Amino acid sequence: MATNNGGDFPEDLIREILLKLPVKALLRFKCVCKNWYTLIKNPCFIREHLNFSKNNS
């Protein structure tokens, strides 16, 4: 299970939510906190987001 990192929700839940958002929203949400910035800029997350977007558009 992913760590909480001081927030109210587990990191894996945040990841699943962010994967479903449009790119424009992700660009805004990079500013929410350092953890979100790090996650959104991660090449693995970017690849996963692209694959999710392709399969669900």
UniProtKB/TrEMBL annotation:
* Family matches, as Gene3D superfamilies: 1.20.1280.50
Q: Which InterPro entries match?
A: F-box-like_dom_sf (IPR036047), F-box_dom (IPR001810), SCF_F-box_component (IPR050796)
Where the record annotates domain F-box, the positions are 3-55
Q: What name is this protein filed under?
A: F-box domain-containing protein
This protein's species is Solanum pinnatisectum
Lineage of the species this protein comes from? Eukaryota, Viridiplantae, Streptophyta, Embryophyta, Tracheophyta
